[in-house]
């Protein structure tokens, strides 16, 4: 089957581009290959997308490198105006975009709308940052000359995004890159290329110049990125995804010492201390665990609960979890949609089965749901032994394993017993304890009496095996800027224009 140059498929009533976007034009891949996109709620194909090969990737990089010459010189206000227009355009299409997110990754529609609002905010936030990129001027320590610094765009950037937040992971990178004056090549996850196509179409519509944003969906992510990262015109890779793939990319980046930002996996501990407001902790746990069906890098992975509040917390969490409605994201009242694919659903079940086999008790759920799609019953596990795999691996599913502890010390020790360090959560009624515990948690982001940390105006990122760099907040734009330093000597006479009227 072949497609026309600027093809579209209708998904959830929305006409979505299914081609590549290179140098301002929608077109098919050079090799003419296509790949399918399926709805995880049914397993059925909803669209067929052009599959970029390495020659397409090379053309996208050539376009980005060419456009960099002019985009990097635009004024901050010009870039801000385009980003702000994109913010309003995304908002205006929030229902269409949300419908497509739900169709390609399964999430309940209300959550998809929330992602559109969150994702759009990065465009507004970075529009606001464009005019706040500053340098320094000051004496060298000896006083012999002046130290002057300025910031310049890094250059053409490869942006690789995951499927779990198909809009926001794109805007978080594109917003920062464009604000800094970098051109980009966006490589969305093969499971969710449609939302990315809608975003790129909006960016083109609001006036992003040709070549500044290029889109190359592919089913051969490894081959494509290897080819691009081997090309010296590429100046930056920004990746969000698993730690396994992030490590591969870092090794490839080493060859050309390519500037790299890595937003990787997590294993978020959720601490409920002895003096916590248990109702608030359960509210926070429901968000931290079941948002996106647990398929979030900042999801609570392990619940570490003090023995004094463990019975109540566990019972309330199990009641609320058992009451969650599971189903297609388009059905009203559904709180948990399908997992992204059969592989992910089976992995979640493997982790649950391992924990149960080691002595954990499933208070609700504990099984996959037979039939169409990739659904898993929301699960609470009690008495989870510390050596269970579920305590050490990222679950990425609607399962809450609970471990009971006797002290804050034990809670902190277990929380930090992981190679990851992305998000953590702590619930306590004592403000000082909240900070003394949070300071000792090895994580890049800590929710204190709050189950949601994501925010465009805050620095998002991890420590340890969870990544390098920050996205969003004031630091986000820095990932796409280089600092350039001028050593300025004011004493050299030739610097004066002799005879000129001052
Ligand atoms: P993944 O690593 O399999 O894929 C992420 C992206 O990388 C996709 O676009 C994929 O096509 C691409 N990819 C896969 N293999 C590649 C290779 N060899 N070279 C280049 N690109 C390659 O991850 P996923 O399953 O799509 O996403 C889930 C993971 O992402 C989880 O571990 C989650 O924690 C993490 N994540 C992290 C953040 C964060 O900000 N830290 C945010 C969302 C998701």
Question: What can you see in these coordinates?
Answer:
This protein has helices spanning 54-71, 76-92, 94-105, 109-129, 168-180, 193-205, 221-229, 243-255, 278-290, 307-322, 342-357, 408-415, 431-440; strands spanning 8-11, 14-17, 20-22, 25-27, 34-38, 45-50, 136-139, 146-153, 157-160, 184-187, 213-215, 236-240, 259-263, 268-272, 300-306, 361-364, 379-382, 399-405, 420-421, 423-427, 445-448, 463-464, 467-468, 481-488. Helix content is 36%, strand content 22%. The protein is built from 13 helices and 24 strands. By secondary structure, the protein is of the alpha/beta class. The model has no long low-confidence stretch (mean pLDDT 96). The strands form seven sheets. Strands 16-17-18-15-14-20-21 form a seven-stranded mixed β-sheet, sandwiched between helices. It has a six-stranded mixed β-sheet with strand order 11-10-9-12-13-23, sandwiched between helices. It has a three-stranded antiparallel β-sheet with strand order 7-8-24, with no helix packed on it.
Q: Approximately what portion of the residues adopt beta-strand conformation?
A: 15-25%
> How widely separated are the two ends?
72 Å
Mean pLDDT: 96
Count of helical segments?
13
**Which regions have little confidence, pLDDT < 50, spanning 5+ residues?**
none
Rg from Cα: 24 Å
Summary of the model, kept short:
By secondary structure, the chain is an alpha/beta fold. It is 36% helix and 22% strand.
């Amino acid at each position: 089957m072949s497609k026309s140059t600027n093809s579209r498929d209708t998904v959830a009533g929305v006409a979505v581009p299914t081609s590549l976007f290179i140098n301002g034009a929608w077109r098919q891949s050079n090799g003419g290959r296509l790949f399918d996109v399926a709805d995880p709620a049914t397993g059925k194909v909803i669209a067929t997308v052009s599959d970029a090969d390495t020659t397409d990737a090379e053309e996208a990089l050539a376009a980005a490198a060419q456009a960099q010459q002019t985009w990097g010189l635009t004024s901050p206000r010009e870039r801000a105006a385009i980003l702000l227009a994109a913010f309003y355009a995304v908002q205006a299409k929030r229902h269409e975009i949300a419908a497509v997110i739900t169709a390609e990754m399964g999430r309940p529609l209300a959550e998809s709308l929330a992602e559109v609002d969150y994702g759009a905010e990065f465009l507004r936030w970075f529009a606001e940052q464009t005019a706040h990129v500053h340098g320094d001027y000051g004496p060298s320590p000896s006083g012999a000359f002046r130290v002057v610094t300025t910031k310049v765009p890094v250059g053409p950037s490869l942006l690789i995004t995951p499927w779990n937040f198909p809009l926001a992971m794109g805007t978080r990178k594109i917003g920062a890159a464009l604000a800094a004056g970098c051109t980009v090549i966006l490589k969305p996850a093969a499971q969710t290329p449609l939302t990315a196509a809608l975003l790129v179409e909006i960016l083109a519509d609001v006036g992003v110049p040709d070549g500044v944003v290029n889109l190359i969906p592919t089913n051969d992510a490894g081959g494509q990125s290897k080819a691009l990262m081997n090309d010296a015109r590429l100046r930056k890779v920004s990746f969000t995804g698993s730690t396994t793939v992030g490590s591969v990319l870092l090794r490839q980046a080493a060859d050309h010492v390519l500037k790299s930002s890595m937003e990787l996996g997590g294993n978020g501990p959720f601490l409920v201390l002895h003096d916590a407001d248990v109702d608030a902790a359960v509210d926070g746990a429901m968000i931290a665990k079941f948002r996106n069906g647990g398929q979030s890098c900042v999801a609570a992975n392990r619940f570490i609960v003090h023995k004094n509040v463990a019975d109540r917390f566990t019972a309330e969490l199990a009641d609320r979890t058992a009451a969650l409605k599971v189903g297609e994201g388009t059905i009203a009242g559904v709180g948990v949609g399908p997992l992204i694919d059969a592989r992910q659903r089976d992995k979640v079940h493997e982790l649950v089965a391992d924990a149960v086999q080691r002595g954990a008790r499933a208070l609700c759920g504990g099984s996959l749901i037979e039939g169409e799609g990739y659904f898993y019953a929301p699960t609470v596990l009690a008495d989870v032994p510390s050596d269970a795999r579920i305590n050490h691996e990222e679950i990425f599913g609607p399962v809450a394993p609970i471990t009971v502890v006797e002290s804050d010390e034990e809670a902190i020790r277990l929380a930090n017993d992981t190679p990851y360090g992305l998000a953590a959560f702590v619930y306590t009624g004592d403000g000082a304890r909240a900070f003394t515990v949070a300071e000792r948690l090895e994580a890049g982001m800590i929710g204190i009496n709050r189950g949601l940390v994501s925010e465009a105006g805050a620095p998002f990122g991890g420590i340890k095996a969870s990544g390098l760099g920050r996205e969003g907040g004031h630091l986000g734009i820095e990932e796409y800027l280089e600092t350039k330093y001028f050593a300025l000597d004011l004493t050299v006479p030739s610097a004066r224009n002799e005879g000129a009227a001052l």
